[in-house]
Amino acid sequence: MSNAPVLKGSSFTFSILQLFDNNVEQAIEYLQAKISQAPAFFAQAPLIINIEQVTEQQVPFEQLKAGIETLGMRPVAVVGCETESSRQAVFNSGMAALRSAGNHSEINIPQESEQNTKGKTTQVVKVPVRSGQQVYAQGCDLVVLGPVSNGAEVIADGSIQIYGTLRGRAIAGASGQLGAHIICQNLQAELISIAGDYWLSEQIESEYWKQSVMISKVNDSLQIESIKI
């Protein structure tokens, strides 16, 4: 068997920063506010920048890239460059220029009032989480009584339990809780993460694929085991 590298096509879910003007300071301020809500989720995460809605595409990409990296994310590409000069500016900043990204919805991490959050230990979702949707259990555990589709995200500051098939992304310990865990009835995830450490689908051992499992974090690394639900 040859050990030569193989170039393959694949698909991954990225966060996209949608810009509407050239105001880099405003973009960094917005991104910083989002990251502060779930720092472990965004830590070292790749980011795509979308400038399709920017009328004059004179964006200072090097300044924008440096600002994003200061916040702990990794800007990798820009989509929506309509001129050769904007594409060249992207290349000069060390990022790639991509084709149109299509339609994307804003990542919405809802804030609950202190009255509703006080004493709350578990948030329960009784409906399927569909592609493009995101659920965030702030300051508590999350229980999903149904499937999580491809392209969907479930996030919790605590642990996550999914009584259905997990095909999307599950991020537990989003605020850095090392003792968080993920339990799911049928593991087919795009990504699983606990307190900043993550596995993509390709990193999940085949013996656990489509099985009932529990994922936890031990000694700064993820561990997985089969369970009965």
What does this structure look like?
This protein has 229 residues and is α/β, with parallel strands linked by helices. The chain has two domains: 15-98, Alpha-Beta Plaits, CATH 3.30.70.260; 123-226, 3 Solenoid (Pectate Lyase C-like), CATH 2.160.20.70. The protein is built from five helices and 15 strands. The protein has helices spanning 24-37, 39-42, 61-70, 84-92, 114-117, and strands at 15-18, 46-50, 74-79, 96-98, 122-125, 134-137, 141-144, 153-156, 160-166, 169-172, 181-187, 191-194, 197-200, 213-218, 221-226. It has a six-stranded mixed sheet with strand order 5-7-9-11-14-15, with no helix packed on it. It has a five-stranded mixed sheet with strand order 6-8-10-12-13, with no helix packed on it. A hairpin with a 2-residue loop joins strand 12 (191-194) and strand 13. Helix 1 (24-37) runs parallel beside helix 3. It comes from Aliidiomarina minuta. Cell division inhibitor that blocks the formation of polar Z ring septums. Rapidly oscillates between the poles of the cell to destabilize FtsZ filaments that have formed before they mature into polar Z rings. Prevents FtsZ polymerization. Pfam families: MinC_C, MinC_N.
